[in-house]
Amino acid sequence: MSTSYYGRDLIVSDQQISTASSNILQVPGDKSISHRVLLAAAITPKPTRLYNLNLGNAVSLLIPALKTLGVQVSLEKNVVIVSPPINDAWNQEEVYVNLGPSSAAARFLIGLLAGLRVKAVVDGDETLRTRPMDWIVEPLQELGANIQYLGEAGCLPVVLKGGCLQDGTVQLKIGSAQARSSVLFAAFASERNVKIFYPIRSRDHTIRLFQYLGMDIQDLPGSVQIQGKCSQPLAEYHIPGDPSAAAFLAAAHIFQRRQTELVLENICLNPTRIGFFEVLKECGIQVEYKNVRQAFGETVGTIIIGKFCENLQPFQIKDSFLFHSLIDEIPLLVALAAIIPGQSAIFGAKELVFKETNRLLSSQNMLLAFGGQAKVVDDSMYITGGLPLQAGTIPSFGDHRIAMSAAALAFSLPGSSKILLGECYETSFPEFPQLMSLMGLNIFHC
What we know:
- Keywords: Amino-acid biosynthesis, Aromatic amino acid biosynthesis, Cytoplasm, Transferase.
- This protein is of the alpha/beta class.
- It starts with a helix and ends with a strand.
- It folds into two domains: 3-29 and 240-445, UDP-n-acetylglucosamine1-carboxyvinyl-transferase, Chain, CATH 3.65.10; 31-238, Enolpyruvate transferase domain (UDP-n-acetylglucosamine1-carboxyvinyl-transferase, Chain, Alpha-beta prism).
- The longest helix is centred in the first third of the chain and has 14 residues, at 103-116.
- Strand 10, helix 7 (177-190) and strand 11 form a beta-alpha-beta unit.
- It has helices spanning 3-6, 31-42, 57-60, 62-68, 103-116, 134-142, 177-190, 205-212, 243-255, 275-283, 320-325, 330-337, 359-369, 400-410, 432-438; strands at 10-13, 24-26, 48-51, 72-76, 79-83, 95-98, 119-123, 147-149, 158-161, 168-171, 193-197, 216-220, 223-227, 236-238, 262-268, 287-295, 298-305, 316-317, 342-346, 373-377, 380-385, 393-395, 416-420, 442-445.
- Helix 5 packs parallel to helix 7 and helix 12 runs parallel beside helix 14.
- It has a four-stranded mixed beta sheet with strand order 22-23-1-24.
- It has 15 helices and 24 strands.
């Protein structure tokens, strides 16, 4: 990852900045949904108004890329307005777009551009160039897309040279939601009939969005079939709060052993995203979902975290669906396991190797820096909890999930901790320090 994305270190202190803190909070828009609706809006015939769009680096880097391609994007007050290229004239010359460290932005955009037959070079920073792209390139090529690697095979940069997509069937190698969504966006943009087989169920935001747009989708166990024609163009979309962001606030509440409730409003409660909160329940923490409703194809509601429970139980994550429903919260669960006496374990976590960092190893090293105990064996991790932890200098490796997990844990320890390159939280959760401050917690840059 380029140093321009790393940013400054964070200092986290156990000294609260106020005696009065808020226990009713809202988090920014969901990052995963923000990517998807931004791209859907780009090929909608008329302007689309997007409310509560996540403007972290992972999403905001997509905006200049879309502008380069001729899409019009403007911010008016708290609304992002997206209009397609004038006269639907996508840039006909081969253009270069760089998505920095954002894998989702790159993978989704490649699918969209393949469906539109737009000529472009799609690239990323040095970290994104190491992350696998063959997951999406190969199925798109099977459907007729002309995509070539410009460097190492299977990695960015790639060049799209058009190629007419055909109706067809593809088999994905892995259960990644990004791989499935890339092909779905290609089918959407080309209005093709495509059937996708996949090995593991994972987050389904793209399927829900396309169903909301009136597309003909058959969502079955192990497969999804789409007829890409849209019958209900997107006019506006209100993005619910990000459950992954909410998880950090819930964890800070737990680490502080607070004897009050924490209320997190307007959170996406999609079952493929709330595995972290389900594990909290298994550990003995009271978690309630209230005011549950359907909005824009997603399940939305309020999460209430109860008072701290002294007799927390260790957890084991074995089920593949559960794992994928909390895949972004693994570093946070490693931190949580450190305060629970006994051994917790996470199995079958090979996909973590392909994140911003190898999150099995970076999560382990984060905990070791606090004095905790964790061991990685093949694709699994074992954490021994209940050991004494201490504040210190904690590496984030420039990974936003590691940085925020370390910060949440550090709040509960005597003294101050320095989270190296901790400002990388801006990748997904720019409001992280402000919301922690609203909880009365002391965090600042250095």
